[in-house]
Amino acid sequence: MKRTKQIDISQALALSGTFSFLCSCSKASLLPFLTLYFRHLGLSPAMTGVVMGTQHCITLVWSPLSALLCRHYNKRRVVISCSLVLSALIALLLLLVPPTDVSGSRFCNASNLRVEPNDSLAEELQVTRAGPQSWTTVHLKAPVSWTNTSVTRSEALPRQNATKEPQAQPSAQNTPVLLSSVTNPTRNSSALHSSINSSAEPLRLKRSEFISSKPEEKKRVSLDFLSSLKEMDVQTQLFFLLLFIVSAWEFVAAPLEWVVDDGLFEYLDFADMSDRHSSRELWALLGGAFGVGVSGLLVSQLSCVLAAETPRSAVHFYTYAGLAVVALPAAVYHPLYLNRKRQRAGGLLKAVQLVQGSPRALLCALTVFLVGAAGSAVDNFLLWQMQDHCSSELHMGLSLSLALLSQAAFPLLAGWALKLLSPGRILVVGAASLGLQCFYYSFLWGAWAALPAQVLSCFSKGALWWAVRVHCGDLAVPGAERSVRRVYMSLALPLGSGVGSFAGGFVAQRFGLTWLFRSVAVGLMAWCTCLPLLQWRAPQQRRINYSRLLAADGSDATDSESEQERDWLDKAMEEDRSNNNSRRTSH
What residues contact residue 81 under an 8 Å CB cut-off, 6+ apart? Predict the structure, then answer.
């Protein structure tokens, strides 16, 4: 007879917490800084939004499908191990992508330029954005003495004013000089040479476009697809290359979280300990806070260029790959279980139907969708906004770490918040707090300016996801709360993040980062104004516990039957007593 393996819940939770901590630490060391790396390579905001939106769309479609296939073929542990290894290898491929030759200082922030005001020089820096590229050009209105590099930096001009300036002839007093030529006076000749090459780059592009406009050239391009790729400009080629690599990366990394979550839940559910499944989320938040903070601190302490002209941003990729390899032994012994008796294939579809049939659930799903769209704008372009205001990786890492810690701290305040507000009102407060954060981000003024707003993450994302969990418990029948929660967190949230990434990139490209955050804030505030009214008009639907209802019906039936038996017995006893009394009186 085969002996049943004893389950150690404490050991299982320890392994699960360690794996969640390492995986979240690995992701947080790279993913928040990924769009910043794309900016350094030369991608425009619109292209960056398309790349990140494609990533969210792949997650939306491939995560549930891959989890279903892993369950059907019982290959969860193999998929987890392969996902860790392949995602680390594909992430390192991004370091092989050559940047567009448009900037002299691609990987160092503007905060590294140590400038001091000096009245003896009449210089003025005008940092402009030339076209869709994100390089900076410094116009000097007076000659700069390379022995004294003290200059004053003025505020950045709007993009509209930069496009309306008349094209002046190059002269000694108005010469485009790259930022590296100011920071490195000993290499001024090479910097000037690179600035001349970068300024002549649009002329070469126009000349190539003119040549390709010939009829015979157009015919050759239409017949040969490979030659048409060669005729693309450098930035477009970079865009398609990054899109392909990021898509492949997300394809191998997307199944990880869903498959691990399924295996752990079934393992704990088999031991009747499914209520302790939520501890995994806390370890994930703590790991993310530790990873983003330590990686930002580490990169900020390094020089701009490592060995062999390797940028210091490569440390994020090496940290991601290293932590993924470290998490591999924990994945081998991670607690997983396949309960074939529980058929969960249609659980997600039933949960979607349940959400669709409830007006309040639809309002909650729409709120999560809008929060996902707003959150994608923050995740993609907040570091761009901070970099424009002289923030280094240290400021970015500490700010994001504080946001995750604040989000993890909200369950400690949940009891106090529930006494003051209902879960529906807490949902409104969460969305409104995120809107206030976005509005604050549009008025950054210094390196540490974004830090105070991160405390609001406790009441934005922390309060919002807590209210969603409470709503799922009130809506779903026992055993289906997790499926309903996935409708919000794994369907509505990635869908909103994808749409927000696409739209946010084009808004940032057209109007700038400041107006992107302001438009997101206005949209969330408008929705928070309408949401309480819609919740008040929506009918209140409570969960029906059919098992309790049947038990109640059974108890009522037994009680009624017992009462009827008692009534019949009492009547019979009373009749018997009356008959006996009448007989006695007759005798």
Answer: 328, 331, 332
Structure tokens at 340: 């074939």
Confirm whether 283 is domain-assigned.
Answer: no
* C-alpha 404 chain-centroid distance: 12
Sheet holding 136-140, edge to edge: 127-129, 136-140, 175-177
Q: What angle do CA 356, 358, 364 make, to 5 degrees?
A: 85
Helix, strand or coil, per DSSP, at residue 73: helix
Give the pairing type, strands 136-140 and 127-129: antiparallel
Q: Which domain holds residue 352?
A: 347-546
| CB 342 within 8 Å of CB 19 | no
Please name the residue that has the structure tokens 């707090």.
433
- 493 near 374, Cβ under 8 Å? no
Report yes or no on 470 lying in a domain: yes
Closest of 371, 349, 346 to residue 468, by C-alpha: 371
CATH number at residue 359: 1.20.1250.20
The residue to which tokens 């370890």 are assigned: 283
Domain final residue pick, 212, 245, 268 = 212
> Which of 361, 375, 359, 446 has the alpha carbon at shortest distance from 407?
375
Give the three-state DSSP class for 252: helix
Q: Please tell me whether the overall predicted TM-score, pTM, comes out greater than 0.90 for this model.
A: no
| CA atoms of 481 and 486, how far apart (whole Å) | 9
Please indicate, yes or no, if residue 169 is contained in any of the structural domains. Answer: yes
Return per-residue pLDDT of the chain as tens, 587 residues: 344 566 778 888 999 999 999 999 999 999 999 999 999 999 999 999 999 999 999 999 999 999 999 988 989 999 999 999 999 999 999 999 988 854 434 446 444 433 333 333 333 333 333 333 333 333 333 333 333 333 333 334 344 444 444 444 444 344 333 333 333 433 333 343 344 344 444 444 443 444 444 445 444 544 454 455 567 788 899 999 999 999 999 999 999 999 999 888 888 888 777 778 888 889 999 999 999 999 999 999 988 877 767 788 899 999 999 999 999 999 999 988 877 665 554 578 888 888 988 899 999 999 999 999 999 999 999 999 999 999 999 999 999 999 999 999 998 888 888 888 888 899 999 999 999 999 999 999 999 999 999 999 999 999 999 999 998 888 877 767 888 999 999 999 999 999 999 999 999 999 999 999 999 999 999 999 999 999 998 886 655 544 444 454 444 444 444 454 455 556 666 666 666 555 554 55
Residue 247 lies in a domain: no
The domain tally of the chain equals 2
Nearest to residue 178, comparing CAs of 213, 226, 135?
135
Are 499 and 35 in contact by the 8 Å Cβ rule? The answer is: no
CA distances from 36 to 112, 316, 385 (A): 16, 11, 10
Q: Please, how many CA atoms are within 13 Å of residue 31, restricted to the half-sphere of its CB?
A: 22
